[in-house]
Amino acid sequence: MRTKYRNRGSVHDRSRFPKTKKKNAQSTISESDLIRSIEYSKQSKIRQVQAVEYEAIHSFEDFQINYQLKKNISNKGYTTPTPIQDQAIPSILAGRDIIGIANTGTGKTAAFLVPLIEKVSKDRKQKVLIVAPTRELAEQINNEFKDLSKNLSIYSAILIGGQGYSRQIRELKRQPNFVIGTPGRIKDMMEKHILTFDDINNVVLDETDRMVDIGFIKEIKYFISLLPKERQSLFFSATVSEKVTEIINSFVQNAVTVSVKKRDTVENIYQDYIKITGKQLKIDQLHSLLVRKEFSKVIVFGNTKWGVQKLSNELVKRGFKADAIHGNKKQSQRHTILEKFKKDEVNILLATDVAARGLDINGVTHVINYDLPKTYDDYIHRIGRTGRANKAGVALTFIAP
Which is nearest to 140 in space by CA: 346, 344, 385? Predict the structure, then answer.
């Protein structure tokens, strides 16, 4: 069944949404809001002047970092720094606090890992704490750390829920220079008196807006209150609400602000909506899309754990290579499923919004909002899983009667 795509362009003009009271800087979204915004973006697209491609001031060779770290960067396939890397790395190397405003998929993980690994390689007394909102993002940061710190004898401990304490306790007892984790498990380890902040002299809060959104603001404030005053503080967020500003003010000192966020979504994401009308079944319409050759690596978002799992089971029955991640899955299961998706052993990933932040999976061709996201920000975060690293992507949203 042929689907008519109505628009090419990005949804980034919030002025088209009805004025509503916002909670945590999020605006609610309805079907009519989304349709109006997409139609408006179609018109604004015509008026847009093509952006000048960013030209990096530095190369990775220019940065004052050791040879092995440069070699690890090259082995990752990184050649030219992204804007956030180009602007943040020199300031972090100089010991400055940073406020980084950037979307996911902009290379910010390497922007803070590269200079911090260099710092630790020169002084093994340096200890780094990196706090991330989700288990998946914490794991991604840890994997990136392992690649960038190869052959430097620098180690990490990862502290996330959904996994047993024993291994994480063993990792902490090794006195690693890097501790990477989610707020809940970090707090658990502190309450067990296994982790202390006494010797932490470098702290990264990554995707702080998301941590605030999902209710970790008390934990973040508590962590900040326990940190030594003499420290380097690196703060990254895609949006800055009043609560996030409150955290910034208590966290950084004389910070350099690096903002590379130009718009809510990148221009190379093709966005559209699909109306389900008459006697059409939603699942059949999804089926008709997924059988197309171009839908080679797809993330389908739903709003409930039960609904996502049911949809995944139905797609498997229909012969698709599909699987689901959601809050009812153990962390080990979610990790295994994500690895299969990355390796194309599964090419359709069903997910709740647990996967909408921070996941950096290469080659996602399409994002499909099977269920309408609850907020505008949720919509932006979901569709940002495609069109990454300057690749083209497609985001489709089902509009059902």
Answer: 385
Detail the DSSP E strand segments found in 206-255: 232-237
Tell me which residue has tokens 């130009």: 262
Tens-digit pLDDT profile for the chain (401 aa)? 334 444 333 333 333 333 334 444 345 677 787 777 666 655 554 444 344 467 788 899 999 999 999 999 999 999 899 999 999 999 999 999 999 998 777 889 999 999 999 999 999 999 999 999 988 899 999 999 999 999 999 999 999 988 889 999 999 999 999 999 999 999 999 999 999 999 999 999 999 988 988 889 999 999 999 999 999 999 999 888 889 999 999 999 999 999 886 554 556 788 888 888 766 789 999 999 999 999 999 999 999 999 999 999 999 999 999 999 988 888 788 889 999 999 999 999 999 987 656 677 889 999 999 999 888 778 888 888 888 766 788 999 998 76
Kindly state the DSSP code that residue 376 receives in the 8-state scheme: H
Q: Which of 10, 44, 7 is nearest to 265 (CA)?
A: 10
Overall domain count for the chain = 2
Full domain range(s) for residue 246: 67-259
Question: DSSP states of 34-93 as a string?
Answer: HHHHHHHHHHHHHHPPPPPPP--S--TTTS---HHHHHHHHHTT--S--HHHHHHHHHHH
CA-CA-CA-CA torsion sign (182, 305, 333, 356): negative
Helix (H) or strand (E) run with residue 283 in it:
helix 282-290
Asked whether residue 146 is assigned to any structural domain, the reply reads yes
Q: 350: closest CA among 310, 387, 389, 386?
A: 310
The answer on 312 and 198 residing in a single domain is no
φ and ψ of 287, to 5 deg: -55, -45
- Distance separating alpha carbons of residues 231 and 328, to the nearest angstrom: 38
**CA separation for the pair 93, 265 (Å, rounded):** 30
- Count of positions (residues) in the chain: 401
d(CA 196, CA 213): 26
Beta-bridged to residue 159, according to DSSP, are 181
Which residues lie below 8 Å from residue 83, measured CB to CB, with a gap of 6+? 54, 56, 106, 260
CATH number at residue 319: 3.40.50.300
